[in-house]
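Subject: for your reference before the review

Hello V.,

The reviewers asked for a structural picture of the protein, and I figured it would be easier to keep everything in one thread rather than splitting it across files. Below is the amino acid sequence we used in the manuscript, unchanged from the supplementary table.
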Amino acid sequence: MEKLVFLLILIAAVIITVKFFEKKSFTARHQLLYQETYQFMDKIMSYKVLGGGQPVILLHGSMTSTPWNGFEAKLSQDFKVYVPDLPGFGASDAIDGQLHNTDLFGRALAEFIKQQNLTEAPIISLSLGTIVSAKTAAAGLTDAPLIFVGAPSQVTGFNAKLLQALPLSIKRILVGTYWGKDKFLIPTLDDNIGNK
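And here is what came back from the structure prediction:
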């Protein structure tokens, strides 16, 4: 009898837990569906727009754009803030048959910038987004200033050369980092990382 009672309690706990998380997942997905969309490679990409004024793009890292939530609300008091989700993130579709890497993400970012006419909008990027925005700029697909937040602590090899090759105008950023022996180091308040 004890085993039966324990089993019933366990089943009830599992059902309650599943229902609780189903509701939360639906709510989060439901909120994501109310974003704006654009087309990239015949798939639907999602983004949010908040506020008004000079446009600014917030680019997420290896998760969805939700880590920007508090910051985007504050920033939108003075700027028009665009927050895209890269392919396969958030409410954006994954691209079938494509390797989801920084090259694909860079092309998606470039298409977003083109479709929204945001070629002059500064891009504030986080983590993985720093590499995506740097590659997009290095390919000449945006002339916008780049602001890196939480860039990988050591960017060596190809990525260091990529960042060093950016035009000087793109290297002028509000909060940057400094260079040392081909490594991307600690954030500083310097606005020019080009010639260190």
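For the response letter, the relevant points are probably these. Strands lie at 36-40, 43-51, 55-59, 80-84, 123-126, 146-149, 176-180, 183-188. The longest helix spans residues 2-32.

Happy to draft the paragraph if you're swamped.

O.
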